[in-house]
Each structure stands twice: as C-alpha cells, then as structure tokens.
Input
Amino acid sequence: MTESRIFEPDGRAIVFAAEGAGPNLVLVADRGAGIESLAALAHSVSTEDFQVVRVATAEAQDVIDLLDELEIADAWIGGHGAGGSVARAVALEQHDRVNGLLLLGVEADAPALATGLPVLVVQSSDDDVTPPANGEALRDGAPAQVSVVTIEGGGHRFPATRIGETSWAIEDYLDWD
Output
C-alpha cells in the first residue's frame, strides 16, 4: 500500500495516494472517512495494471485540481457514498476527462448523471446509509447507462469488508483482467 501525500492548491490541503500504473481510476472516500478506508480495495484493483488514485474531499474542484497536478488526462472517477456524489459532480464539470463513473453505493439527492457516460454501481445488500434501492432507482432511470452489482452483506463499509467481491465486480465490468 502507498503512503498518503498532501497537495495544496490555493492553500487547500488535499490528501491523496496513488499506486499502480496504467489506465486511471480515481476513488473519492466517503464523508468522514479518510483515504485509508479505500486502501485495500485500491491495492487490489491496482494489481491489475491500473493506477488507482484515492482522495479525501467533498469538493469536485479538488478532484479536478488533483487530476491536473498528476497530469491525468482521463480517468474513471468513482467514490464511496458521498464520494460518489463528488464523482458525479466531477463528471458533470469535466465530461471530456471522465471515461465513466464507479459508484460504491448511491446517495439519495446526488447530482444528476452526466449524459452518455457508463456508470457501474457496486452496492451492498444490507447498506443502511446508501440502500440498494438507490442504485436500483438510478438504473431504472437510465437503464442503457447504469449497471448494478449487488454484493451480499458488508454493510455501508463493504468496500473495506468485501474487498474481493468489490474488486472483482469492478474488474469484471471494466474487463481489466
């Protein structure tokens, strides 16, 4: 696993870590969770020859500034819980740089989906913070755009408690292996 670093554009402290090499996946941590909450998942996915960047922020601009700093021209952008809402905002603001969205649980009242981008929702069957009904409603509203994978158990912290299943769902969808 990689150590965290701090990037400070305009005096804002953005905590992030990057590991692996290849196509990019940026994962935004859930509100109140640090980047370590996604460390094991990021490591698992990065072993499939991809660079995974983890970031802790509530602001889309922080993600955009980090993409610029790391010279990432395009990436899949994702997030866990509230981090997924940040990812959706990034996709709306930087549509041309976002290859698709990876939502680890879906918040209610999140920003709209960017038109035309593929979306993978990975969710837990027993998540009481971002219930599976949210992901299913998103899919029902945009069936040609949104795919949903539901993992049995794991609660809201399923990206950390069900690492293998979550990583497999991501890799399988993106055909990374």
Helices lie at 39-46, 60-69, 82-93, 132-141, 158-161, 163-174. The beta strands are 5-7, 14-19, 24-28, 51-56, 75-80, 98-104, 119-124, 146-151. Residues 28 and 83 are 5 Å apart (CA to CA).
